[in-house]
């Protein structure tokens, strides 16, 4: 059971009520609306992560799934349909859920290894970084780190506040998820 109430357009503070009403009815959006002054900027930043990066949408989704697998199952459940729409296969998703890297190409493997280190303790070895930088540009690497950081921070909030699960809405329910 969640530690804070989920807000709706009717129960949210006036400063964010209309925004809450426009969002998909997911607990994450309803929970974070308590942070009135940060809510809209957080939504804009999250929207930029989902739609404005140069990073390939499939790599972005693999980063989010890796964070979700390691830190908050809520993120995993919400992003599996988005990852599928971005090109992830059932074989890849099953392997990633087991922590295996076999069905991924070199760039995907390097991204998943980097993200795993980022989530666990933030220490990315020189070898892990070299593998990533051999496959991706500096811009893409920074965008991977920003994506992992955003979703890791969100995972910690959701875990500490004990968010309840929601059915996955997929890319149709999160239009900012550029594919």
UniProtKB/TrEMBL annotation:
Taxonomic superkingdom: Bacteria
InterPro entries given in the database record: AhpD-like, CMD-like
UniProt-listed Pfam families: CMD
Carboxymuconolactone decarboxylase-like domain: residues covered: 38-107
The protein's name in its UniProt record: Carboxymuconolactone decarboxylase family protein
């Amino acid at each position: 059971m969640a530690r804070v109430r989920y807000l709706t357009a009717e129960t949210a503070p006036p400063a964010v009520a209309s925004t809450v009403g426009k969002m998909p009815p997911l607990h994450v959006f309803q929970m974070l609306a308590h942070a009135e002054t940060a809510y809209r900027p957080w939504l804009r930043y999250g929207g930029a992560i989902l739609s404005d990066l140069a990073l390939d949408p499939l790599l972005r989704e693999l980063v989010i799934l890796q964070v979700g697998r390691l830190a908050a199952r809520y993120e995993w459940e919400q992003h599996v349909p988005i990852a599928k729409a971005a090109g992830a296969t059932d074989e890849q998703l099953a392997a990633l859920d087991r922590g295996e890297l076999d069905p991924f190409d070199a760039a995907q493997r390097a991204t998943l290894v980097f993200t795993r280190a980022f989530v666990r303790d933030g220490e990315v070895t020189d070898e892990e970084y070299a593998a990533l930088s051999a496959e991706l540009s500096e811009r893409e690497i920074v965008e991977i780190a920003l994506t992992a950081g955003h979703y890791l921070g969100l995972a910690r909030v959701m875990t500490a506040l004990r968010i309840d699960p929601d059915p996955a809405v997929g890319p149709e329910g999160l239009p900012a998820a550029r594919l």
